[in-house]
Amino acid sequence: MHAFHLIAFAWLGALHAVAASPAHANPRANVDWESFGFGLNDVRTDKMWLDRVTVEVGKENEGASAYSSSEDECLVPLGNLELSPTATVLNYGQALFEGLKACRREDGSIAIFRPEKNGERMAKGAARFFLPPIPSDVFVGAVDSVVRANAQWVPPHGKGALYLRPLLIGSGEGLGVKPSTESTFCIYCSPVGNYFKGGLKAIRLQAVRGFSRAAPGGAGSIKASGNYAPAFLVQRQVRQRGFDEVLCLDALTGQAVEEAGASNFFAVFPDGTIVTPSLQEETILPGVTRASIFELAAAECGLKPVQRRLALEELRSAKEAFCCGTGACITPVGSVHIADCGGEPSDQEIVFGDGESPGPMTEKLYHMLTGIQTGSNKELAEKYSHWIHVVEP
Ligand SMILES: *Cc1c(COP(=O)(O)O)cnc(C)c1O
Asked: How many Å lie between the centroid of ligand 1 and the Cα of residue 273?
């Protein structure tokens, strides 16, 4: 009897200890969170993760165990990296990046959306780029540490997120065109505002014939840094012509839709199918948001999700279209304009709905996904709790 009481007391004590465990730092005072857009805002977060490991030549893909998971070793003040001008990353673009977000939930806890997916994607890219892949648990642990160390920079509930940017680069010296002898894994972060302030707004895309971002057999399915700068010029031209973003067409035929900027593309058709371009040719980035929407569309919206080739012309019969990615979550697409290579405006424009308001499924999916990510939709957040990584204080 006595022993039982003692155990019960110890158990209650443990419960009490959990309830009273230290909470995350509150959002930093005197910060105008509402003023933040989506971008590197004018604040300096406190800590970054930095781990440099030596790569044994010929054993790049086996070198995974070299990465540290120690906060003492890898959490350092945010600062510049020192690199030799001969570093492989600078000369040959041996570089990968990731992007994910941490949100403060209503109860003050902090949640990260599916970080293991980003870890798996970076590990795949690392194998292709001859960098030692980071084991998933080390990746998630590092992300977790960076969030905890910068908890005061996680905006208040509903006012944005802490955006995390992991980098994996070949930082060793060398002149020959060959993989690096050193790998640097770094994670920095920055608070970002909500992409949409006061309601979803549809964007206008322009598909530019003759421009493609990825070809079969290339590295389009990898979040490789070198995939992005080649689109800067066409992006600028498209914006100068009054559109928001480039809609990339396939390299082989120029007739199929691939993705838009750094986000995946979906179209909703009157027969209840929701189509996103297939990953089969490895020209499309396998987005975590894309995969999540694919699941939600079937399980929660009664739609039939399909991955296949999506011809530009088919969009004429679509009811709704949207882009998706970690940054904006879901961005409704109001119209797609088709331009020739020289940018000569043609008069071909495909408009969805009234060209301005988000379609009903787009809006529904947006609220579902953000409701899960921020925990504001209690029921769905519970159902999809396996998508949420809670950062322990
Ligand atoms: C990052 C990215 C996406 C979106 O991926 P998420 O994992 O959903 O953020 C889509 N397309 C490209 C080209 C990207 O770089």
From this structure: 22
Distance in Å, CA 352 to ligand 1 centroid: 23
In the DSSP assignment, the letter for residue 338 is: E
Helix (H) or strand (E) holding 47: strand 47-54
Residue in the block written with tokens 């959490």: 75
DSSP letter for 3, please: H
Instruction: Assess whether the C-beta atom of 262 lies below 6 angstroms from ligand 1.
Output: yes
CA nearest 269: which of 308, 224, 324? 308
346 burial type by CB count under 10 A (0-12 exposed, 13-18 middle, 19+ buried): exposed
For atom 6 of ligand 1, which residue has the closest CA?
287
> Does ligand 1 come within 6 angstroms of the Cβ of 99?
yes
How confident is the model at residue 343, as a pLDDT?
A: 58
Q: Is the CB of 289 under 6 A from ligand 1?
A: yes
Q: Does the C-beta of 287 come closer than 6 Å to ligand 1?
A: yes
Residues taking part in catalysis: 223
100: part of which helix (H) or strand (E)?
strand 100-104
Nearest to 193 by CA among 27, 340, 318: 27
Residue whose CA is closest, atom 1 of ligand 1? 262
Centre of ligand 1 to C-alpha 263, Å, is: 5
Encoded tokens for 147: 């969030």
How many angstroms separate the alpha carbon of residue 5 from the centre of ligand 1?
A: 55
Task: Tell me how far apart the alpha carbons of residues 293 and 319 are, in angstroms, rounded to a whole number.
Answer: 17
What does the alpha-carbon distance between residue 357 and residue 363 come to, in Å, rounded to a whole number?
A: 9
pTM above 0.90, yes or no: yes
Phi/psi of residue 265, nearest 5 degrees:
-125, 140
Mean pLDDT for back-to-back runs of 10 residues, the chain (393 residues): 46 47 85 81 89 85 86 97 96 97 95 98 95 96 98 94 97 88 96 81 93 94 96 94 95 95 96 97 97 98 98 97 94 93 72 96 96 95 97 94
